[in-house]
Design brief:
The complex is a heterodimer.
Chain A (H helix, E strand, L loop, with lengths): L2 H12 L1 H5 L12 H6 L6 H12 L8 H8 L17 H15 L4 H11 L1 H17 L1 H8 L7 H12 L19 H5 L18 H6 L6 E4 L4 H5 L1 H13 L3 E3 L9 H5 L3 H18 L3 E4 L2 H8 L1 H4 L7 H8 L2 E3 H7 L10 E5 L3 H4 L7 H7 L4 E4 L14 H4 L1 H18 L3 E4 L2 H13 L6 E3 H12 L8
Parallel strand pairs in A: 1-2, 1-3, 3-4, 5-6, 5-7, 7-8
Chain B lengths: L3 H11 L4 E2 L22 E3 L4 H13 L4 E4 L16 E4 L6 E5 L4 E4 L5 H8 L4 E2 L12 H7 L6 H4 L6 E7 L5 E5 L10 H5 L8 E8 L1 E2 L3 E9 L2 H13 L6 E6 H8 L13 E9 L4 H15 L3 E4 L3 H12 L1 H4 L6 E4 L2 E2 L5 H14 L3 E7 L4 E2 L1 E5 L4 H20 L18 H4 L2 H14 L17 H4 L21
Parallel strand pairs in B: 2-4, 3-4
Antiparallel strand pairs in B: 1-2, 5-6, 6-10, 7-11, 8-9, 8-10, 12-14, 12-15, 13-14, 13-18, 16-20, 17-19, 18-20
Helix pairs in contact in B: 1-2, 7-9, 7-12, 12-13
Classes of the chains: A alpha/beta, B alpha+beta.
Amino acid sequence: MSAATDTLTLALKEQEEGLLNCVHCGFCLPACPTYRRLGDEADSPRGRLHLMRAVVEDRLSADSDAFQRHISRCLGCRACEPVCPSGVAYGQLLELARQVGGEARRPPLLNRLLLRVFGTGWIARPAMFAARMLRATGIPALSARLLSGDSTPKGARLGVAMLAASGSAGALPEAADPAHPASDPAAGSDRSSGNGTPPADSTPPAAPTAALAASPPPTTVGLLTGCVQAGLFSRVNEATARVLEANGYEVVPVPGQGCCGALHAHAGDLEAARAMARRNVEAFETAGVDLLAMNASGCGAAMAEYGTLLAHDDRMAERAAALAARVRDVSELLAARGPLPGAEVPMQVTWDAPCHLLHAQGVASPPTTVLNAVPGLEVLPLAGAQECCGGAGIYGLTHPRLGGWIGADKVRSVLDSGAAALVTGNPGCMMQIGAGLRLRGSSVPVLHLVEILDESYRRAGRYRPEVP
Amino acid sequence: MIPKALAVSLTGICGPDGVIADRDRLLVYESDALTAYRHRPGAVVLPRTTDEVRRAVQAITRHGLPIVPRGAGTGLSGGAVPLGGAVVIGTARMNRILSIDAANRRAVLQPGVINAELSAAAAAHGLYYAPDPSSQTACTIGGNVAENSGGPHCLKYGVTSRYVTGLTVVLADGSVVRLGGQGREAPGYDLVGLFVGSEGCFGIATEIEVGLLPVPEGVRTLLGIFDRIEDAGRAVSDIVSAGLLPAAMEIIDGPTIRAVEDSVFAAGYPTDAEAALVIEFDGLEAGLDAEAARAAEFCRCAGAREVRSAKDEEERLALWKGRKKAFGAMGRIAPDLLVQDATVPRTTLPAILKGISEIGKRYGLVVANVFHAGDGNLHPNILFDRRDEDELERVERASKEIMQICVDSGGTITGEHGVGLDKKHHMPLIYGEAELDTMWGIRRVFDPGEVLNPGKVLPEETDPAARASRDDGAVGEKPAAAPAPAHA
């Protein structure tokens, strides 16, 4: 073990109290997607914590195949955290373990390359531009359809399909009833009228216009534009800004912001993640916003934990914690305002909860509140909606076999749900599930939550200057 | 480590990803949920079918190695700890429900099916599986069969043995036998009854047939809050003496209440109380309210400062979640805990609870109690830190004394967690040599070579054959064939 590894092992040792919280009850086992599929306890949260503790106790080397393999095989979905009676901060421990593991043995080139691309602005921007150009040619979409055989490496096929899946879903179905033209603003304000297809188990939103009137100075929000989100999903960022404005928020530009560092932290590159966190704390502080709006739940979870990430930074700790406390998912912001109803979007969709929204941030009901507020939209149940899709940041690319297995199960339950579209709230999930659907030859589109609401508002004419 | 030839043949049976022989990876299998006992296995195999189990058993025994079956490793008596370099046969991949026969209220499943998932699957037919150990969201039915597991609702519904009607078992010699099944009354000896609770010493159950019950029409759940735990104990004793039959009666003491309320499973128990008593009645709607009212009255008479009743299903589930996750929540108080599992006559509960608290004080240990009060099944949790050797020593002595006062009051050394490794040495507290030798005789019928889960349940010293090679968890009769115990 090198001296550097010793220093880092110390970091894990500092967390020994966190590791000791685990009493080995095993309640986390059934929640873990890798354990459920592989059946090996070393691929369960309890087993991984056991390996971490063994490293701390000097019974196991961080360079060992066992530690490297099982720590890297974790999706980081954190489904184990809400079921842990002892409250083990698994996500944080995993990041430390990866830092220790990464120092002991250099991570594979692919991992390092991907992180480098996302984390470095001058590389990310042209790379994303090139990706967009490639996507525009239609080649990825075509290849995803043609490359169904086993001759192409799994990772490459998935990568191409993911790029294709990041594209726009195209037009959503229009209301069938001519009595309610899609552009009629009134259609949205009275959800009890319409053509007899009320949204499933929805409660009417609490008088949104009154609520708006009662909140005098508009809340200012700064949107994290993100790296992948800005690069491949700019339409989602634009839609997010529009729906927030429509609900009475003032979306303020935040210059100087960058990648949130989530992928780096998850991969154990905590120093890189801290540098990105510091930069974002400065940028959002300077912008002086009331709240931070997140439309990528992986980024939201990371920013909500900036306080912990920078806990040992004397200059930044308090500021980071204060900023983290103001992080909100876009679904929370919208649900807090009703949200304002729009016009009909008559289709059946199903909701897949991103792990970093449900498990890491504990945001469970706001997304369904938002969907239920869209007239004509029916939200069908999705079996295993709380389970990871296998995307997990760059996991789908670094572990194509296991990630593909988990992804295939998700795709099957999406198809079984009978929904015409899948809705979720994180770009990684959108690409992973979208790619899986394409590779299965399915045309079911994957949409971001705000895209549906945005379409509903557009049809209701909410974006016309004269409409409040 | 196992011989290379064995690793090769096991890989041929269970596939390369179904065999774990790497020393480091095996670390995670060194203990179950009772982490005080740790021994690294020689290997782990993860079969998928009865036939794979049969072939694995044959291959392992051909190399003279012992075998330990393992479900989810949630056991609390060290029952799944592999002594003597044993090979673990894990059932994690045998997790399919093979059939649910709703009309006959019966299900056939593989042993790795999770207890709560059986009930979830049966719910579609208006049925459920009654035994509900607190670990039911994680523990497997195979493990339940091995330990004859109980749970809060066993007060009214009985333990696992009442529900297992048939078994397919792989014996130590690799033969496959079918016990019970179909009709409940099989002629001849009740081998299913004998097998359930045999703690992995008689064979490996690879298919399990269980009975299911219809979901009760109505449920009433009460929460009594007490300032003294003895008063809660008295309420339990009075309720049963009066002839009421609640489905469950559970006591959660002050330290446990505070740990649970601090966790994500906060149930709304008042944190300044010294005991919370959860009482549940179920069955036909008619009469439930009257029963609940009588039980509430008994609580008040015994000194409850408040009796609440769950308004809806959500509140009811919260009350239960707090109880069922209590064991895990202890991790918030101390890094290690030893859960005891003694059963005493209900009427002695108040005195025993007081006795336990005195023992804890004398040894300077925190003892948290959360238990099936209706059955008199105590679970004193002794909290400690295994890095403190002096404390570890005190834990052992306190544990033994607690066991002694339970036995002295007419109780026994385990209610539902099994004997395993942890309580093996307490067996002579309740059995004489003749009884223990009888048990050894029965064990030899199933497993003459002591291949299956050796070193568990029965203390070696009572067995003449094993007296020669005791201690160290050595493998009884074949010390030459078995490698030295892999102490971690």
